[in-house]
Amino acid sequence: MTDWRDSSDSQDRPKTEEPLHTKSDSAQAGSSPRILQVGKLPMQLLDKLLSTLDLTDPRIVVGPRVGLDAAVVKTRDALLVAKTDPITFATDLIGWYAVNINANDVACMGARPLWFMATVLLPEGAQEELAENIFQQVSSSCSTLGITLIGGHMEITYGLSRPIVVGCLLGEVEEDRLITAGGALPGDDIVVTKGIAVEGTALLAREARQQILAKGVEPQVVERASDFLFDPGISVVRDAQVARSAAPVHCFHDPTEGGLATGLEEIARASSAGLRIEADQVPVVDECRVIAGALGLDPLGLIASGCLVMTVSPQHTRRVLAALEAAGIAARRIGKVVERGRGLALIERDEERPLPRFERDELARFFEESA
Questions:
Q1: Which pLDDT band, with edges at 50, 70 and 90, does 31 fall under?
Q2: How far apart are CA 120 and CA 196, in angstroms?
Q3: 314-339 pLDDT tens trace
Q4: Per 3-state DSSP, what percentage of the chain is helix, strand, and coil (rounded to 5)?
């Protein structure tokens, strides 16, 4: 899922860490223009683009910023949370994905998802059944989550080889209940739910079954992974509701494209903080470990919807973990938030190394190299 996503106040935006060249800059330097890979824009480029925006409307509480997934606007009675995200990798259950992925990011702002719109682009030659199926997926998914489908657009589009659904979801939250990915504080514990990479493993099992089986993976492993969309599921709406009801949560984030590693980096950027991650505590689900290993993919960089990352004060960690366990949601502490100057580190066997960075999601890399 390509995720242009990032939002928050434009003030105190971290400066671009690496210089980026525009086309004219590259031409002047005598170098070739930089070709962008499939997936999210590089963080430095996105930060550069967003830094040109001039937000003057005082009602904007959270505007565009790298690392945050939704915008927030103040209305008369509450805060309106707005999120948009396209579904581009998946073809199976694409309408269901569109609702759940957008709902996750609204929930990660501490908000209740309420109103959904979708733009559905179908390839030439699409049959009527495809339009009906996608509409039904969107409608039923909204109903399951208590969301109202309030409008959208559907068309047959020239030049597409597969359907694309772009969702837009609105929600509400009280002003004193707003949570963002920029709220992590030094000293906080980092907690994750379920494990990684739920969505990436499910997509691989559904979209690349034959390649996986050809690598010697047992069919029952692929079957279990295919069901990950529903068990343990990619929705984190309930995860967020349970955690925030148990104790004060400083930060929520839904690690999507680029996996857990990218999601953690986004938290660090948005919060101007450093992170220490304990590698042996990161819960990689067994099926992900097997499938990713067979395909030569790193679970840390594999699209990870279904895993909710949060930071809480150490005094509340046990309470949050207990509440999640009581709700039947697996959760684990995986590390600590530290001062920004200490950077992002992965600790493994008492050795510290930089947290891996992924310029594109491992799923995108796999499908591109397999094409």
A1: low
A2: 29
A3: 999 999 999 999 999 999 999 999 99
A4: 40, 25, 40
Helix locations, the chain, DSSP H: 23-29, 43-50, 94-107, 128-144, 198-207, 209-214, 219-226, 237-246, 259-271, 286-295, 314-326, 362-370
Helix/strand/coil for 299 = helix
The residues that bridge with 117 in the sheet, in sequence order, are: 151, 168
Residue 348 is classified by DSSP as: E
Q: Which residue has the tokens 């919807």?
A: 305
User: Rounded CA gap, 105 and 117, in Å?
Assistant: 15
Sign of CA dihedral 186, 191, 195, 197: negative
d(CA 83, CA 90): 19
Q: Give me the pLDDT at residue 34, please.
A: 81
Mean pLDDT of 165-187: 95
* Amino acid, res. 250: H
Residue 77, Cβ neighbours under 10 Å: how many? Answer: 9
- Do 3 and 221 touch, CB atoms closer than 8 A? no
Contact 121, 162 (CB under 8 A): no
What are φ and ψ of residue 337, in 5° steps?
-90, 135
Largest CA distance in the chain: 61
* Predicted local confidence at residue 32, as pLDDT: 74
Predicted TM-score (pTM) of this structure: 0.83
240 to 297, 308, 352: CA distances (angstroms) = 28, 7, 30
Each residue of 126-148: pLDDT tens digit?
Answer: 999 999 999 999 999 999 999 99
pLDDT of residue 41: 83
Q: Which domains does the chain have, with CATH numbers?
A: 23-177 (3.30.1330.10), 189-370 (3.90.650.10)
Instruction: Dihedral sign for Cα 10, 12, 15, 16, please.
Output: negative
Q: Residue 99 carries which side chain, given as an amino acid letter?
A: V
Instruction: Identify the sign of the CA torsion 188, 189, 191, 196.
Output: positive
